[in-house]
Amino acid sequence: MLLSLAANGMAAVMVATGVADPVRRGEYWLAQLHLEQAWQYSEGAGVVVGVIDTGVNSDHPDLAGAVLPGRAFPDLGSGTHDDWGHGTTVAVLIAGRGHGQSAGTLGVAPKTVILPAKLAGGAQSADDAIHWVVDHGAKVVNLSLGGDARTDSEQAYDDGLRYAAEHDVVVVAAAGNRPHDAAVVSPANRPGVIAVSAVDASGTFRDDISVQGPEVALAAPGADITTLADTPQGRVPRQENGTSFAAAIVSGTVALLRAKYPQLDATAVTRRLTSTARRPAGGGRDSRYGFGVVDPLAALTTDPEPPASPRTGWSPWWPAGGAVVIGGGVLCWWTSSRSRRATRGKR
């Protein structure tokens, strides 16, 4: 199965360069999520995050020393070089360390490390990639990709997701983007996966960017995300939208928790995230925000309520009926600014 990628024709917004670094200036989520205070408790040191995406460029100035040797699935001999820049942007949002004097992106977990798995095939390749990153030490897996509900390859995802759960790995996935998608897509809608929707700088759900649905577990910033992006034209400041980036911010938050609380299993980590999230108006869970906007500082410092019942095997932690059996025959990289739509070829 081969993965073909094509831009969706939507131009990214270039950020004008001013006196202050435009990338650092654009990181509104640093203050929105109280990350500087959160870093007093954890910076994600010692945690490996598997990024299954378009690859990661380890020479990015904001990722110096943050990228482990990776692998492509299937191996086409090109290594994990990121020709599109999507996976690199995701990695920077998770583990960016900035560069120079107050320049570049500071990721949510600036002392964590990225294990890249470049996805060059369909759902089976994604399943192989999940197994590989888990076997190579990832305690968090970020899946900023998704599958079309009209196809039938969900079992390929489920095997890898079950393997991750059996090995105490937290899996975070992008919920899907409007207008390309109408509902939460696979693997975000599969059992045990943290599905993430997108909000803006005010913490408001953006229905022009993000899908909604009963599987959504958390929301995170995914609007007007500015990074130093790798593009075919070079490395430039760029502003983008998409649940890919919201998922990356949640994956970084998971890394903070796994570093501070290594004794907690994946379910307990998820419980901390959902119980401390900033609730949507009216309280409770809804289809747009899930349990609320992720709050790294609260997750690191507030003990959750005891669970109502112990964990029993691999099962959805969202309410019964939330999971929908759909497939992944068509993969796309969830970013409304530059969606990478991928169609499975025949063997």
TrEMBL record:
Presence of keyword Nucleotidyltransferase: no
Record-linked SUPFAM superfamilies: Subtilisin-like
Domain Peptidase S8/S53: from-to ranges: 44-292
Annotated GO MF terms: serine-type endopeptidase activity
Keywords linked to the UniProt accession: Hydrolase, Membrane, Protease, Serine protease, Transmembrane, Transmembrane helix
Listed GO biological process terms: proteolysis
Transmembrane segments: 317-336
The organism's place on the tree of life at top rank: Bacteria
InterPro entries: Peptidase_S8/S53_dom, Peptidase_S8/S53_dom_sf, Peptidase_S8_Asp-AS, Peptidase_S8_subtilisin-like, Peptidase_S8_subtilisin-rel
Active-site residues (renumbered): 53 (charge relay system), 86 (charge relay system), 244 (charge relay system)
Family classification: Belongs to the peptidase S8 family.
Protein name: Type VII secretion-associated serine protease mycosin
Organism for this UniProt entry: Amycolatopsis australiensis
Phylogenetic placement of the source organism: Bacteria, Bacillati, Actinomycetota, Actinomycetes, Pseudonocardiales
